[in-house]
Amino acid sequence: MRSKTSERELVRVNCPHINKIVKKDSPLAKIESSSFKKQIANSSLHCDNCEARVPRLWICLHTRCRAVVCASSKSHMRNHFDKENREDACHSVFVNPHTLKIWCVACGSELNPFENNGLISEARNYLKTVIRCLQVKRNKSQQSIDQLTIDVPGLVGLKNLGNTCYANAALQCLSNTPALTDFFNYCDAYIPHLPHLPHTSKRPPYKLAEYFNQFVKAMWNGTSAIFTPIQLMNEIKKHNNAFQGYGQEDSVDFLRVVLNRLHEELPYPQNMPGKVSKNGDTFYIYKNPSISTSNSSDNMEDVYGTISSSSSTTTRTSTTDRIQKRQSTHNSVISYLFQGLFESQIKCLHCKKDYLKEEHFYDLQIQIDKKFKFKSSEKFTENSTSSSGSVMGSLTGWLGMSSRVVRLQDCLSSFCATENLTGGDKYRCDKCESLNDCQKKLSIMQLPETLCIQLKRFRHETYFSSKIATHVQFPMEDLDMRPYCKDLSNDTLKITKYDLYGLIHHRGGLGGGHYIAYVKNPIDKNWYEYDDTYVTRKSAADISRLEAYVLFYQKKSPEKDVERAEVLSKIDKDSTAEPSYFISRLWFNRWHFMTTPGPITNYDFICPHGSVNTKRYPRLRDMVVKVPFSIYNTFVNKYGTDGSLPLFSADHTSGCINCEREERKLEQRRRKEDDDIRKIDTNSINRGEYWFLISATWLLNWHYFKSGGPPPGPIDNYHFLHEDGSPKHGMKRGSDYRGVNEKVWSYFEHTYGGGPICVRGTIDLYAPNPLISDHTKHGKFYQKSNGSKNNKRVS
């Protein structure tokens, strides 16, 4: 993990009172006392003068003072200061045990030891010790506090916003994924930041990447010991209704939603020649990207032509292929890190036909298979073996209460073993045209850099549900995935060993419980327990004994580690004697943290003309890494290139003339489309006409394009429609779809393509389709009639 100087504006704090306290005894003499540990452990701490409790409590930091006061309307904190504070006894500095904020009543200022705010080093270390001691979770069996290292980044707790421990555990594991953290800290110039638009402007849904970026920086820039992810959680709730309440949810479901959304919002730039339309759009290819800039009314009438049923069918088919191809082929930091590929093979035992299907995954869902318990358990006694056949033994085993142990490798073997599909699980063979007995086998085709394994501990039966409490032995180092892979000649399968760096533990039963994350810090290589706001150091032995629910493994390669150390040492040296090249930070991030970074590409920031679009990428210095020619030549010889030209460090000052010309044309296009739509858009339609429903997300992207963003790409109405054109359940007007008149729809479809067409008599997705009964012998969808306007649109 690289270091980076904080860009926050320094606030100078001159507090002479904390300097007086520093000269006294260590703060541990008070905060680690048995009375405080007991009260904080069972949450019985309250104000000495009233019954006020956290978060309004403040503890006086005078080492011989045991005062716990509140900051309520009675202001017992102020009363304590007025009564006890003297020249030789400073009682003005207080710490909140819940928020871990430190406040000086005399100065009226907050003292944050994690910021460079002018505090002397002795005072800063003193206050850091106070915060770290309060941040460590205490329990009855803990006789001493395992002190946290005060200056290690990443040791930040997350505030529970109401049963959000499932989210906090997943976020802590993502935060401690080195490649992902490095991307948000040092490749943030590639994150699509939104401009400061007026409140009336439409904004595309790119907020999660911004909020996640803020979250990562707060976790690693060392400005606070506790972070409140309220904006991040509110944004995630918009993408999944299950997280909108205050109930306990599944941590794996939350993890999938975050990864899927970040994958959609953070596509790698695609500036390669042939992937860019005539208008200079770099992210999408349009059905008809070039439109006339003429103001001729004849051209306008051509756009508003009546749509035929045959053209609608063609549009829908091409739109489906184009949208699915775009969604499945674009790469992101998420797909490079977490996405693997496995193959499902089903063989009909009657005709011997094989059915193969490849499927991407972010996490492997592994059953804790019962049949391997007897073979892998090494902790059996004669009593436990003999009781396994009894009624009580069978019941406890079914309930998941057995003390027997299985290995993770056995669960993986069961996952990839051949399974017989018989009885009610028979598979329908297309060749035999009947349900036949078949065999099913799963094989891993591509291993991800970060392997996420979910152990399926929750069993749901028809009349009963339970949690499987069987302990699964998992390797802390050198998990070899080679036995579970199919094609070992694949480059991604040359390195198959993994080391554990994160774990999610679920404590409790099926109807409730609590999620806790255990993560290995990439800086000091120590294990830590993240229980919401509490952070406690743990040993590797403690981790190995846990009942794991989700395991996070990082691919390892000692050869790559040696290569990285040698190259980084040469880059850090002063190499002004030889020319330097610019390399994309995205590729450098992959090389720094991944075992298979792929060929060098500079198309991340180089335009298709071989130069730099300075308007689109004004922060070029933040998008590249400067490397000496010898290092660049080493990279080329080992990894190759994708054909992108190297960029000399002295050749970036002037922008691309061709891109500037295309940007001017794009600006003219923005103004023209805005003027054209204003002329034809209406809030009502004539009698006999219909509303055309359109994706609200696509419409927001088009409004963002008007304000200076990239073009929105083809219309994608499959956000609220199934593949057969039927409406999806739970879609809402305004947030999921909106209505436009015929002329606006025709204009958008002619300009961008896409679809499919969805027509209604009112702006209601679930209203009947009027086109079914309004077909005419002329092959038109409907006939326009002039009548009074009686159908108004609600914006």
From TrEMBL:
It catalyses: Thiol-dependent hydrolysis of ester, thioester, amide, peptide and isopeptide bonds formed by the C-terminal Gly of ubiquitin (a 76-residue protein attached to proteins as an intracellular targeting signal). SMART domains: DUSP (SM00695). Residues 156-556 form the USP domain. Residues 13-130 form the UBP-type domain. The keyword Cytoplasm applies. Its EC number is 3.4.19.12. It is found in: Cytoplasm, Cytoskeleton, Microtubule organizing center, Centrosome; Cytoplasm, Perinuclear region. The keyword Nucleus does not apply. GO terms for cellular component: perinuclear region of cytoplasm. Keywords: Cytoplasm, Cytoskeleton, Endocytosis, Hydrolase, Metal-binding, Protease, Repeat, Thiol protease, Ubl conjugation pathway, Zinc, Zinc-finger. Signal peptide: none annotated. InterPro entries: DUSP-like_sf, Papain-like_cys_pep_sf, Pept_C19_DUSP, Peptidase_C19_UCH, Ub_carboxyl-term_hydrolase, USP, USP_CS, Znf_RING/FYVE/PHD. One of its GO terms (biological process) is protein deubiquitination. SUPFAM superfamilies: Cysteine proteinases, DUSP-like, RING/U-box. One of its GO terms (molecular function) is zinc ion binding. It holds the Pfam family DUSP. It is an enzyme of class 3 (hydrolase). Residues 559-652, 664-763 form the DUSP domain. Belongs to the peptidase C19 family. USP20/USP33 subfamily. PANTHER family: UBIQUITIN CARBOXYL-TERMINAL HYDROLASE. This is Ubiquitin carboxyl-terminal hydrolase. The lineage of its organism: Eukaryota, Fungi, Fungi incertae sedis, Mucoromycota, Glomeromycotina.
